[in-house]
Amino acid sequence: MNDAYLYAAVRTPFGRLGGALAATRPDDLAATALAGLLDRAPGLDRAAIDDVVWGNANGAGEDNRNVGRMAVLLAGLPVSVPATTVNRLCGSGLDAAITASRALESGDADIAVAGGVESMTRAPWVLPKPDRAFPAGHTTAVSTTLGWRLVNPAMPAEWTVSLGESNELLRERYPVTRERQDAFALRSHRLAARAWDEGFYDDLVLPVDGLPRDEGIRPDTDPGKLAALKPSFRPDGTITAGNASPLSDGASALLLGTGTAADRIGLDPVARVAGRGVHAVEPPLFGYAPVEAAGKALRRAGIGWGDVGAVELNEAFAVQSLACLDAWGVDPEIVNVRGGAIAIGHPLGASGGRLLGTLAKVLRERRERWGVAAICIGVGQALAVVLENVTGEVSGR
């Protein structure tokens, strides 16, 4: 078996719903991220890329017809470079990286690109086809931006509640106060703003269409502003627009390869994919699924939480993030140290690439050896990946 390594990572800024990237098609966002990634490896023969694996959750509009292949063509890569698109909802981008890493380890590929894209702004409305021809009545267009749509009537109703209601249910099972959620959200915004101000993201993010940095970060937010927001899903609930991730647009890309591919890529690897984990639970408890997914990834890497120096956990909701951290028992100060999705945004298919790219750089910056990236997924799933810093700049655990 070969080892799979991460050589480079890049992403677009993440835009707000209806914001600066609203006029940009998702296939163009994907092509921009792909081209920008390969600019990091100017010596790489593009025809040497064995496969491109791309994550996308919606795939109902301009990102249909295999957006990974569309990105390859739009980015001007040789037509001989193949591509596929994978859909594991919020985990699609991380699933793409996992799929690519397995191909490298098995010997099916030597150089691969993984990534993901989502334009939640441009996700279309859809109409189901009628059961019979020429119906006389009206029909309703359904938004594909987020959540359940065109639900099968055989699905238990308690499984198909909204993502927000699911996390209120999670909060009842694993009590996390509104105050803790708001404090976690405030930390996310402050750390993300500081990271940008300090230049952390300068070499990870490509400006797109006049947007130089993540659009959703609110450096001026404070405890009073967050506390004043009304609950979004229950009158007596704790989840608000301030302590949950926003709807976003963006793309990310990762250059992966075996160790023997370094000369052809023209770069040194920065991290090794050391372990992977996938786990599933009841659909409403999806926010808690990263607990065991990360445990599986750590066991497969042959390490424990005591060895981990950095964690990138996708902040779908503050409540589920805190529930996971409580279960893991990790030091919160090693988690999302450069901000998280509550501030940066969560364009579904792009988030996995953001997590891995950020994690690899945080490991180098903090000189830590081991890190975990994890993400919860609607309909009751989660993924996790363990990265090992291989740059030689390691002084921690």
Structural notes for this entry:
The chain has 397 residues and is α+β, with helices and mostly antiparallel strands. The chain has a domain of 258 residues: Peroxisomal Thiolase, Chain A, domain 1 (3-Layer(aba) Sandwich), CATH 3.40.47.10. It contains eleven helices and twelve strands. Strands 1, 2, 3, 4, 5, 8, 9, 10, 11 and 12 form a ten-stranded mixed beta sheet that branches. A two-stranded antiparallel ribbon has the order 6-7. Helix 3 crosses helix 11.
Tally of DSSP β-strands = 12
CATH topology of the domain at 5-120 and 245-386: Peroxisomal Thiolase, Chain A, domain 1
CATH homologous superfamily of the domain at 5-120 and 245-386, by name? Thiolase/Chalcone synthase
Q: Using only CA atoms, what is the Rg?
A: 20 Å
Q: Architecture of the domain at 5-120 and 245-386, CATH level 2?
A: 3-Layer(aba) Sandwich
Order of helices and strands: EEHEHEHEEEHHHEHEHEHHHEE
Which geometry do the CA atoms define? Answer: globular
Largest sheet: 10 strands, mixed
Distance between the termini: 26 Å
Would you identify the regions where 5 or more consecutive residues have pLDDT less than 50?
none
Number of helices: 11
Name the CATH class of the domain at 5-120 and 245-386. Answer: Alpha Beta
Structural class by SSE content: alpha+beta
| Mean pLDDT reading | 96
Share of residues in helices: 25-40%
- Percent strand equals 15-25%
